Structure prediction request, 114 residues.
Amino acid sequence: MSIQNAGKAVAVWIAMAGVGCASMPEPKTPTEQASGLERSRCASFRDDSTIAEVLSGRAVERVEPLYAGTQTKSSNPRLQGAVLSVRPIRGATAEWLDRSLECHGCLLYTSRCV
Prediction:
């Protein structure tokens, strides 16, 4: 490959890289992410009365820490959150409960940020 052709190849690559970067979406703030999730996935999950016992803690049977990673000589697992075990709710699947709690959290988050 000649120096002239190599220069053209580099110019084409730079032009293509610029187009690729220009087409990348702007990073979203947590508020924008929650609002988008609420609009796209939570339209049918507005009934907090069904999950009221979970929200109040009455249906929660057990809470355990959720760790990421493993214990080694040089590292410790990191606390990521909590695992809640709840009593079964009549007519609700685990997936429905998960989505309802997720949507409830998004609604609370976006209402505080507006």
About this structure: The first helix runs from residue 3 to 22.
